[in-house]
Amino acid sequence: MSPFKAAAWLAALCLCLSLALPALGADSADLVQEADLLFAQRGDLAKANQAADLYEKALAADPKNEEAAWKAARVIYWIGRNTEGDEAKVLVFERGIADAQKAIAINPDSLGGHYWLGVSYGLYGSAKGVTKSLSLINPIKEEMAKVIAIDPKYDEGGPYRVLGRLYFKVPGIFGGSNSEAIKNLEQAIAYGPARWLNHLYLAEVYLDEGENDKAKELLQKIIQGPAPQGLEPDYAMWTAEAQELLKKLQ
Length: 250
What we know:
By secondary structure, the protein is mainly alpha-helical. It contains eleven helices and no strands. It folds into two domains: 20-127, Tetratricopeptide repeat domain (Serine Threonine Protein Phosphatase 5, Tetratricopeptide repeat), CATH 1.25.40; 152-250, Serine Threonine Protein Phosphatase 5, Tetratricopeptide repeat (Alpha Horseshoe).
């Protein structure tokens, strides 16, 4: 091949590659939109799993798609919450951790990445057991601190909800504290008064403290609703848990 023909062939190849890149990104965006539609139907766990697969396919198509990465971690959280057995949950949350970490690798200030990484750490640790997950306490706090620094209202008080849950679940000898849990969950409610999970977690702390009247008031608020738009599957779970706790009080 002559030098001229070789140069022409190389130029044509570069042009083809440059034209392919935008299409690749567009395919990734389309996959995210398709996954979003499935995520909205996550009450059907099969569709939640399909959404997770599509988000990860979108990330494979465009490794710089931060949105696909953190949204994958978000839906995997839902899948994990609805998975039976600690061993199975560990595998699910390992996947969520990996996706959240990818979001942060793409963008070190990824709000969704830091938030869902902290959430995934917490549920992964819960599935592993407290004594096997003590090393995750500080990483969870660090992730929530990063979220608070960027947007303390994220996910309607999400970082404070995570911290409140952490302080409640961790034994006192390792830094757990019901008073710290209450403080953080009250802040979560201030930022997300209709995010009923904030109330549910606070009610559990009050029950542990023997403040049954306060717990009952919160649980009744949850059941009265209404369901936040877009969170209907979550609300069904929250109300079921609230009703179970109310039964224990009667």
